Amino acid sequence: MTPKKDCEKIILGVDPGTNLMGYGILKVKGNRAEMIAMGVIDLRKYTDPYLKLGRIFDRLSGIIEAYLPDELAIEAPFFGKNVQSMLKLGRAQGVAIAAAMKHEVPITEYAPLKIKMAITGNGQASKEQVAGMLQRILKIANADMLPYLDATDGLAAAYCHFLQMGRPDTTKAYSGWKDFIQKNPDKIKGL
């Protein structure tokens, strides 16, 4: 579904982590996105893993209450060789999802490769490349860039979600172009 020109929406993007959890917030109006905020939830001073999870829930709930996002885009944990790291990351992601669910914010999950591909065109892009591309796309001043790449990863999840909003609904079956046009008259302009 193509966003309407007057449609306004707030997207919260989250990059789950157990030491630093990144987040980015976009304001979307029609086909334009603008960064509202980005930052990190710094969990490094907590040694108890359950206190970290509680802090994630509390801080993310506060961010949701402050910015009132319409949707949440969250990066899915990648499957690595370290099972303990995967478990910790999965718990952090689950708590972030629970905070969004508590506030009735719809959630969409994206694989890291999909986010990198959407932002840079390269699924193997580095965090620095993703941050640099977001800085150019969203016209973010150097002074607004944070030293933590986790924040730009959260913003990347939000921007990836924004890009996906303009895509046709692929769950519909079409018998051809004529059928597509008949079922999507709002997508055809000037005919």
UniProtKB/TrEMBL annotation:
EC numbers listed for it are 3.1.21.10
Residues that hold Mg(2+) 2 according to the record = E75
Q: Which GO terms describe its molecular function?
A: crossover junction DNA endonuclease activity; DNA binding; magnesium ion binding
Q: Which reaction does it catalyse?
A: Endonucleolytic cleavage at a junction such as a reciprocal single-stranded crossover between two homologous DNA duplexes (Holliday junction)
Show the GO cellular component annotation of the record.
cytoplasm; Holliday junction resolvase complex
- Top-level class of the enzyme under EC nomenclature: hydrolase
Binding of Mg(2+) 1 occurs at D15, D150
Pfam families cross-referenced by the UniProt entry = RuvC
Cofactor details (free text): Binds 2 Mg(2+) ion per subunit.
Identify which cofactors the protein needs according to its UniProt entry. Answer: Mg(2+)
Main location (coarse class): cytoplasm
- Active-site residues? D15, E75, D150
Q: Enumerate the UniProt keywords alphabetically.
A: Cytoplasm, DNA damage, DNA recombination, DNA repair, DNA-binding, Endonuclease, Hydrolase, Magnesium, Metal-binding, Nuclease
Compartments where located = Cytoplasm
Name a biological process GO annotation: DNA recombination
Q: What does this protein do?
A: The RuvA-RuvB-RuvC complex processes Holliday junction (HJ) DNA during genetic recombination and DNA repair. Endonuclease that resolves HJ intermediates. Cleaves cruciform DNA by making single-stranded nicks across the HJ at symmetrical positions within the homologous arms, yielding a 5'-phosphate and a 3'-hydroxyl group; requires a central core of homology in the junction. The consensus cleavage sequence is 5'-(A/T)TT(C/G)-3'. Cleavage occurs on the 3'-side of the TT dinucleotide at the point of strand exchange.
* Classification via PANTHER family: CROSSOVER JUNCTION ENDODEOXYRIBONUCLEASE RUVC
Subunit text: Homodimer which binds Holliday junction (HJ) DNA. The HJ becomes 2-fold symmetrical on binding to RuvC with unstacked arms; it has a different conformation from HJ DNA in complex with RuvA. In the full resolvosome a probable DNA-RuvA(4)-RuvB(12)-RuvC(2) complex forms which resolves the HJ.
* Family of this protein: Belongs to the RuvC family.
Q: What's the protein called, per UniProt? A: Crossover junction endodeoxyribonuclease RuvC
State the organism of origin.
Candidatus Paraprevotella stercoravium
